[in-house]
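TASK: fixed-backbone design
INPUT:
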């Protein structure tokens, strides 16, 4: 019996959740991605100091999956084909290609900043930091999860003058205010130069120009200012006559708006949920169970909030969920356990060595 064909575009948190749980006996799976490996992104910032292998090669996946390494150009929705090196037909199409770095069109950010979006980005940053002499100034712009972990890790290296810069009033704005205060106290003890309510106007070769404040001279600047929808997502929306500036809009079942055989999961989708790894992974699992027929047709996608955790330096982390928040060294040990457990679970799950 011929299997229905599902084409998945992109290999990240959302698609790995889908591919781990999809019933290969029911479907033919074709995965198209420019990247040939999954990256455990929550440890990217901490890995500038460590030497963890954070990748899982696609070659370690279930051999039933057909992998095409390529960048998708566009979609021929009328003929149900993905336009790649060659046109690939589909019966179901899953968008899982992620997002892009958001520079907010600030002049000089693209040219003079380092980004932390991929494993290769982390290696570039690590190698550049090794080249810098002691007491060099390293500035991190953006103090959300990625930026805060980068700042905490840089402080542990005891080598640099570290600047933490953010347009918002405090670090980790999505965390409880008391946890942000814990971060500020920790960074103050570690001699981090903190500049909040500081709107970056421009980045030049050696300085960060800030509105109504003196410029910050730097030897290296790392941009952790957020994400935005990709050009490919914009193209998809235009082709489907969808108008959403934040991503490919989906309904409560993760179908692309108005489409029965199209789905979007992870950071490329606009679902009303935050663009985090745990949301993306849960969306992938939910969609796999829908394909498998394991869910009632009317069962909506609901996020199981497992909380947020962030390393802030000096062996300490902060954590919060719906029932608890706290921080310190004990939470730092918990942070290590969480990542070890999660990465191990992903590595051994369904077809991984």
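OUTPUT:
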């Amino acid at each position: 019996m011929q299997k229905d064909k599902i084409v998945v575009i992109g290999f990240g948190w959302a698609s790995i959740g889908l591919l781990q749980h999809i019933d290969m006996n029911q479907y033919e799976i074709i995965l198209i991605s420019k990247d040939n490996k999954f990256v455990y992104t929550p440890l990217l910032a901490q890995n500038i100091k460590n030497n963890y292998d954070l990748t899982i090669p696609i070659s370690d996946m279930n051999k039933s999956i057909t992998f095409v390494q390529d960048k998708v150009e566009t979609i021929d929705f009328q003929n149900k084909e993905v336009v790649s090196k060659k046109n690939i037909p589909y019966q179901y199409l899953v968008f899982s290609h992620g997002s892009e770095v958001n520079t907010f069109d600030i002049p000089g950010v693209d040219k003079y900043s380092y980004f932390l979006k991929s494993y290769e980005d982390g290696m570039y940053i690590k190698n550049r930091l090794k080249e810098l002499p002691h007491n060099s100034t390293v500035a991190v712009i953006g103090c959300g999860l990625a930026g805060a972990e980068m700042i905490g890790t840089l402080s542990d290296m005891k080598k640099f003058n570290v600047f933490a810069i953010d347009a918002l009033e405090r670090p980790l704005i999505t965390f409880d205010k008391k946890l942000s205060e814990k971060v500020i106290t920790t960074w103050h003890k570690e001699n981090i130069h903190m500049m909040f309510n500081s709107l970056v106007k421009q980045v030049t070769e050696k300085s960060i120009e800030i509105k109504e404040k003196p410029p910050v001279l730097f030897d290296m600047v790392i941009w952790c200012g957020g994400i935005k929808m990709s050009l490919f997502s914009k193209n998809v929306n235009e082709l489907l006559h969808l108008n959403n500036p934040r991503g490919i809009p989906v309904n409560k079942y993760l179908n692309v708006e108005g489409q029965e055989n199209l789905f979007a999961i992870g950071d490329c989708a606009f679902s009303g949920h935050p663009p985090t790894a745990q949301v993306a992974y849960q969306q992938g699992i939910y969609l796999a169970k829908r394909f498998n027929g394991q869910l009632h047709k009317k069962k909506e996608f609901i996020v199981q909030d497992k909380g947020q955790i962030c390393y802030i330096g000096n062996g300490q982390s902060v954590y919060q969920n719906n029932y608890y928040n706290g921080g310190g060294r004990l939470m730092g040990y918990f942070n290590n356990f969480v990542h070890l457990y999660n990465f191990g679970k992903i590595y051994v799950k369904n077809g991984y060595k």
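COMMENT: Helices lie at 13-21, 109-112, 119-131, 145-156, 177-189, 231-239, 277-292, 329-348.
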